[in-house]
Amino acid sequence: MSECIFCKIANKEINSNLVYEDESVVAFRDLNPQAPQHILIVPKKHVANITELDDKNLAAHIFTEVVPKIAAEVGVDKSGFRLVINTGEEGGQTVNHLHVHLIGGRKMTWPPG
Ligand code: AMP
């Protein structure tokens, strides 16, 4: 059995505040939100990080269907939002299962920390 926390969330072995689910993706609220809306979009199959994502259909599904749908559902599609994919140690990735942060509901700043 996988020890990956996001696999466990995808498999419903541990609870999350789920906002979206389909056959290939789950999305749930981040435990430590950095903005009023902070949702993690996660492929159900284990992919360690964006450099390991070799499924073009899954990539297209996430970015052309899931992101716009969730952004509209949580009400940030018009005001704007930020997508973040932390990758590897210097990228600040702490969970080694690909996830897209969808962050919104406040004005973002740049550069990121
Ligand atoms: P990253 O640092 O990009 O790998 O992001 C990992 C994110 O997962 C962090 O923002 C954490 O707050 C979040 N996180 C970790 N465990 C959980 C969990 N069980 N449920 C929801 N979010 C989590």
Topology:
Blueprint lengths: L4 H6 L7 E4 L3 E5 L7 E7 L12 H18 L7 E4 L15 E5 L9
Antiparallel strand pairs: 1-2, 2-3, 3-5, 4-5
The structure holds adenosine monophosphate (AMP).
Brief account:
With 113 residues, the protein is an alpha+beta fold. Helices cover 21% and strands 22% of the residues.
One letter per element, helices H and strands E, the order comes to: HEEEHEE
End-to-end separation: 35 Å
Broad structural category: alpha+beta
Radius of gyration: 14 Å
Strand order of the largest sheet: 1-2-3-5-4
Can you tell me the residue ranges where pLDDT is under 50 for at least 5 consecutive residues?
none
Query: How does the major sheet shape up?
Result: 5 strands, antiparallel
List bound small molecules.
adenosine monophosphate
- What is the helix tally? 2
What is the helix content?
Answer: 10-25%
Shape: globular
Mean pLDDT: 97
In total, the number of strands is: 5
Percent of residues in beta strands? 15-25%
Could you explain the architecture of this structure?
- The chain is of the alpha+beta class and 113 residues long.
- It contains two helices and five strands.
- A five-stranded antiparallel sheet has the order 1-2-3-5-4.
- A hairpin with a 3-residue loop joins strand 1 (18-21) and strand 2 (25-29).
- It is globular, with a radius of gyration of 14 Å.
- The N and C termini lie far apart (35 Å).
- 26% of the residues are buried.
- The mean pLDDT is 97.
- Bound molecules: adenosine monophosphate (AMP).
- Adenosine monophosphate binds at residues 5, 16, 28, 30-32, 40, 86, 92-95.
